[in-house]
UniProtKB/TrEMBL annotation:
The chain crosses the membrane at residues 7-25. Coiled coil: none annotated. Keywords: ATP-binding, Kinase, Membrane, Nucleotide-binding, Transferase, Transmembrane, Transmembrane helix, Two-component regulatory system. Residues 229-451 form the Histidine kinase domain. PROSITE patterns: HIS_KIN (PS50109). The keyword Metal-binding does not apply. This is histidine kinase. PANTHER family: SENSOR HISTIDINE KINASE GLRK, TWO-COMPONENT HISTIDINE KINASE. SUPFAM superfamilies: ATPase domain of HSP90 chaperone/DNA topoisomerase II/histidine kinase. It is found in: Membrane. It comes from Pontibacter populi. Its EC number is 2.7.13.3. The keyword Repeat does not apply. It catalyses: ATP + protein L-histidine = ADP + protein N-phospho-L-histidine.
């Protein structure tokens, strides 16, 4: 249709041009130069109009391609014209609408993916593999590291040198764990990387996930399995010793009494008494070890929680009544603060009281040698999570011991059992929460229970 209209338009214009040329030739032989000049001008105008007629489709095409180049889909081409461009304009508008729709769909998909990536709790960042410049970063990444803005990974060098070094050296397809002291406390981060190319640039997509809770749960489960085996073997080995010691003790006691009533029998009664006393000690320590093992095994087995809604203020009142007399006897200042009276948590009140008692007992031991001993219990809601923090101005925990304090039976105190903190961690794990510690030697320690 377009080609037929174009051919017909050219044919008509060509006939008119030939006619004008014939008339001009006639003017040249019969009339004055004025008519000849006018004829030549008309011929030139016809040639100009014919050239425009032939090239206007090309001009329209060039205008359309220019709009596509600049992604300008707002242009509209007149479809109501009676010229040969009508069908061309319709085709242009159809293509224009298609491009516009594709652009809208792609923009919608981009916004959709952008929203999803912002909502996930996994940190994601895209950086230039050569310069380290940040191309895109989601809010979770900045929230995990506690940075409001990130333009380049080099800006992390002063704050997190270990993480900066990892981000500089990590290769595509690799995953590694990094331990960092974040604003929320000591954490373990899983760092993974994937390379891709975008607009002829090599980019690295880095994923950052806080796996502290997962690692803690795995470690707790591993320790529980080991302790189940250990307690089972200890009880199986110690129980016969305690029973045998009890039998031997009774037998020696009877023999000593019999020989005491028969003075003519030459027996070293002092040796019998020493032996009986030694066996009694063996029996006593064996039974003590059995009780300790049984106690820990029972706690380790406890998986069912008596969950209730607990007002933190009431929980603190109970702890205050229980612990204040002991602390005041040693001159230790003890304060409890709750951000709002209606602050609540969902948990087992008896177990959580046990956790707080364990932490306060440890703090009491840590502040004994301080000039102005102080322990403070604070509860507040941070970032949608209830946090109970116990601060003390004690001697602090050496940095090399911070990784070990939650290991069962590990203790740095000669009178400690090493199960208080591991038990507290286990109870918080049952509540699907975490326990974190921050400490500085000769300054103090803070334990945080995060629900």
């Amino acid at each position: 249709m377009i080609s037929k209209r174009l051919e017909l338009g050219l044919f008509v214009r060509f006939i008119l041009l030939l006619g004008m040329m014939y008339v001009t030739v006639q003017y040249l032989t019969q009339y004055t130069w004025l008519q000849v000049t006018s004829g030549i001008l008309v011929i030139l105008a016809q040639l100009w109009e014919m050239a425009r007629y032939v090239t206007r489709s090309n001009n329209e095409l060039a205008r359309f391609l220019e709009a596509v180049k600049h992604r300008d889909f707002s242009q509209r081409f007149n479809e109501n014209t009676n010229s040969s461009l009508q069908q061309l304009h319709k085709a242009f508008n159809l293509i224009n609408n298609t491009f516009k729709q594709l652009h809208i769909e792609r923009e919608a998909q981009f916004q959709y993916m952008q929203t999803i990536l912002q909502l996930v709790d996994t940190g994601i960042i895209a950086v230039d593999a050569e310069t380290g410049e940040v191309e895109w970063v989601n809010d979770a990444f900045k929230k995990i590291l506690g940075v409001p803005y990130l333009k380049s990974i080099n800006s992390l060098e002063n704050r997190y040198p270990t993480l900066h070094e990892t981000l500089q050296t990590i290769k595509s397809g690799e995953s590694t764990q990094v331990k960092l002291k974040l604003p929320t406390g000591q954490s373990q981060l899983l760092v993974s990387a994937t390379a891709f190319t975008l607009q002829h640039r090599n980019l690295l997509l880095i994923v950052l996930k806080n796996v502290s809770a997962t690692v803690d749960a795995t470690e707790t489960e591993a320790w529980q399995k080991l302790l189940r085996v250990m307690t089972h073997e200890i009880m199986n080995s110690v129980a016969p010793i305690a029973s045998l010691a009890d039998t031997l003790g009774k037998h020696l006691h009877m023999e000593r009494e019999r020989y005491s009533s028969e003075p003519e029998v030459p027996v070293d009664l002092e040796l019998l008494e020493d032996t009986e006393e030694g066996i009694g000690i063996i029996k006593k320590r064996s039974e003590g070890l059995l009780r300790f093992t049984q106690f820990y095994r029972n706690l380790n087995k406890q998986q069912q929680l008596n969950l209730t809604t607990i007002y933190v203020q009431e929980l603190f009142k109970s702890i205050n009544s229980l612990m204040r007399p002991r602390l005041e006897e040693e001159g230790i200042a003890f304060t409890c603060k709750v951000s709002t009276p209606d602050l609540t948590i969902n948990g087992d009140v008896n177990l959580l009281e046990q956790v707080l008692i364990n932490l306060i007992t440890n703090a009491q031991r840590a502040v004994r040698e301080r000039a102005n001993p102080e322990i403070m219990l604070v509860a507040q809601q941070l970032e949608g999570k209830v946090t109970i923090a116990l601060h003390d101005n004690g001697t602090g925990i050496p940095e090399e011991l911070l990784e070990s304090i939650f290991i069962p039976f590990f203790t740095s105190h000669k009178d400690g059992s090493g199960i208080g903190l591991s038990l507290s961690k286990h109870i918080m794990h049952l509540h699907k929460g975490t326990i974190q510690v921050e400490s500085e030697e000769n300054v103090g320690t803070t334990f945080k229970l995060i629900f």
